[in-house]
Amino acid sequence: MNLVLRRKLPSFSAYLFLIPAPIHHADSAIGDSFAAERRFYSTVLEKKSSPSSSDASKFPEYQLPSVTWGVVQGRKERLVSRVIISDYLKSLGIVPDELADLELPSTVEVMRERVEFLTRLGLSIDDLNAYPLVLGCSVRKNIIPVLGYLEKLGIPRARLGDFVRAYPQALHASIVVELVPVVKCLRGLDVERYDIPYVLQRYPELLAFKPEGTMSTSVAYLVSIGVCPRDIGPMVTQFPFLLGMRVGTTIKPLVEYLISLGINKQILARMLEKRPYILGYDLEETIKPNVDTLLSFGVHRELLPSVIAQFPQIIGLPLKAKLSKQQYFFNLKLRIDPDGFARVVEKMPQIVSLQQNVILKPVEFLRGRAFSDEAIAKMIIKCPQVLACQVGLMKNSYYYFKSEMKRPMEELFGFPEYFTYSLESRIKPRYQKLANKGIRCSLDWLLNCSDKRFEERLQGDYIEADVPGPSFIMGGKLEMPGSQLVSEEEDDSDVEVLYRRTISL
Q1: Which residues contact 111 (CB under 8 A, 6 or more apart)?
Q2: What separation in angstroms does the CA of 274 have from each of 222, 260, 281, 344?
Q3: DSSP letter string over 72-86?
């Protein structure tokens, strides 16, 4: 009979285990009282289950109490409480419409406690209106445990309000089921423990992802294209949004497009390791229009890979406006025509973001040393890196050139790269070695080679003819003019080729 009653009335009989069993005590009155109490509850159940009894709907108060609030209320009491709570929220300026299907607390005092707690945390009425479902979280069962766990991870208490404002859904999360697995996944990706608070504050929606879902597939794809697994942690720290990107719709199309431009996959992997924010650029709205803009301004298509590899940010900038502004400035102030400006962008794409007052400082220095505007324009087109040099260092190099080296000014016209080399670590030591040997050579022969190559030249029985310096072409080997004088073993290694490519970035 008891089993039948349990099947018919689970909402009430489930609580029978809370009723204490009879205790065989020396005082028989105590045992009799427990027995009488159990007989009373059994009688209630028998009446509820008898065929002559009315339907269970006549006793709405005997329903499963709220798991959240732990208070048994009748239907009328719940409706009255909801109306009172709605009026209270309206008086504060909170629209309770989205709370219609949400279980609310039994009294307005509990709701007042939640509102006051959240406002003390730093949330405004507008924040609560933006996500009113946060009012369905219990202060003691949801909010305090989650905030305590976040603070334990290292998020400062003063910034918890900003965190909840950015991602209020975190207060609904289960610490064990949802939050802890995400943190363990970040640690498994080699994100340092002290970086986890920074990652979560920058991308709090990360707590909503499943480690075995989008997070794992995006990481697996990046590793498949050549990204070093040990670099995933620093990449996530710098740009945690990549863990929320879908491979098929976001990452893979972007990677394939950049490879189609001529960028080697291994070079692209190195670019992503150092600048993972590239993955955040929109392919259709930003990257492709910027590539078309570069072509329209005269940049050669075959040099696009080199331009992007040198300055990956260029595919994510408002490029058309920046190029138009700089092109006009170069034409007006530096006497460089649009075709010359395109050559400058090919050799130094960072010029699109260089401030105009910074550009003018080395130009004014050269003008003050009797360089004509035409000569300065040719020097900039040949070596635009001169525009990024510090004027103080240029002065020291110039005075050493005039006083110690005593060379004609025409050599600076032909080799403006002279100003980009360090005076103390390269120019002086090498010139002194040449002076001791009584060797006379061009600036290009003197400076545009490695230290090892320079020593080989000093030990040679003759001076090789001047040839252009090393040039880098994306997707191919590093072309080193005069490399026939170097042993074959130094050029055949694929690792060495890749290393040189990476260094050029």
Answers
A1: 85, 88, 89, 104, 105, 135
A2: 13, 21, 15, 25
A3: ---HHHHHHHHHHHH
264, 475 in Cβ contact below 8 A? yes
The length of the chain is 505
Q: Does residue 106 contact residue 73 with C-beta atoms inside 8 Å?
A: yes
- Helices marked H in 93-143: 108-121, 125-130
Is residue 348 predicted with pLDDT exceeding 80? yes
| 300, two tokens | 């050669």
- Please answer whether residues 302 and 294 qualify as being in contact, where contact means their C-beta atoms are separated by less than 8 angstroms: no
DSSP string, 194-211: GGHHHHHHH-GGGGGS-I
Cβ within 8 Å of residue 115, ≥6 positions away: 89, 92, 94, 128, 135
Mean pLDDT (whole number) for 36-54: 41
What's the Cα-to-Cα distance from 281 to each of 251, 253, 288, 304, 314, rounded to whole Å?
A: 10, 12, 10, 17, 11
Strand partners, 471: 479
Q: Which residue has the tokens 């208490």?
A: 157
Residue with tokens 């990481």: 219
CA distance to 186, 209, 213, per residue, from 217 (Å)? 14, 12, 7
Quote the CA–CA distance of 385 and 354 in Å, as a whole number.
Answer: 11
Mapping DSSP to helix (H, G, I), strand (E, B) and coil, where does residue 70 land?
coil
* DSSP alpha helix (H) spans, 369-449: 373-382, 391-400, 410-414, 428-437, 443-447
pLDDT digits (tens, 9 = 90+) for 70-86: 455 567 777 887 888 88
SS3 186: helix
Task: Decide: 16 and 30 in contact? Cβ < 8 Å.
Answer: no
Residue 33: predicted pLDDT: 39
Q: What is the pLDDT of residues 216-262, one digit of tens each?
A: 999 999 999 999 999 999 999 999 999 999 999 999 999 999 999 99
Token pair 């208070």 is found at 71
CB contact at 8 A, 265 and 225: yes
106 is written with which tokens?
């039994």
Res. 354 pLDDT band, cuts 50 70 90: very high
Rounded CA separation 298/345 (Å):
9
Query: Based on the number of CB atoms within 10 Å of its own CB, is 17 exposed (0-12), middle (13-18) or buried (19 or more)?
Result: exposed
pTM confidence score: 0.73
What is the Cα gyration radius of the chain?
Answer: 37
**Integer Cα distance of 457 and 453 in angstroms:** 6
Residue that is written with structure tokens 């050799």 in the block: 347
DSSP symbol at 310: H
Angle between helices 108-121 and 75-92 (to 10 degrees): 30
User: Whole-angstrom Cα distance, residue 207 to residue 50?
Assistant: 52
